[in-house]
């Protein structure tokens, strides 16, 4: 029986660290630190590290409460 890859749980949009850093206006070093401390997930593809833009959006974008919203 030939081996087939299972379908991913959700579609991912994996991009290089440099592209993600530019998209979120942070440095590649910041993304590497966040991967190291477990704040965001990094995926190794061969020798390269990729991140999911959807995961980054949920992890990096934080709503700041204001006095009017209370």
Poorly predicted residue ranges: none
Strand order of the largest sheet: 1-3-2
Percentage of residues in strands: 15-25%
Largest sheet: 3 strands, antiparallel
Shape: globular
* Computed Rg: 16 Å
Q: What percent of residues adopt helix (DSSP H or I)?
A: 25-40%
Mean pLDDT: 84
Q: H/E element string?
A: EHHEEH
Number of helices: 3
Helix vs. strand class: alpha+beta
Separation of the first and last Cα atoms: 60 Å
Give the number of DSSP strands.
Answer: 3
Walkthrough of the structure:
Helix content is 37%, strand content 16%. By secondary structure, the chain is α+β, with helices and mostly antiparallel strands. It has a domain at 14-60. Strands 1-3-2 form a 3-stranded antiparallel β-sheet. The chain starts with 13 loop residues before the first strand and ends in a 10-residue tail after the last helix.
Task: List its traits.
single chain, globular, 70 residues, alpha+beta, 3 strands, 3-stranded antiparallel β-sheet
Q: What is this structure, in a nutshell?
A:
The chain is an alpha+beta fold and 70 residues long. It has 3 helices and 3 strands.
How are the SSEs placed, and which strands pair?
Layout: E1 14-16, H1 17-24, H2 28-37, E2 43-45, E3 48-52, H3 53-60
Antiparallel strand pairs: 1-3, 2-3
Helix pairs in contact: 1-2
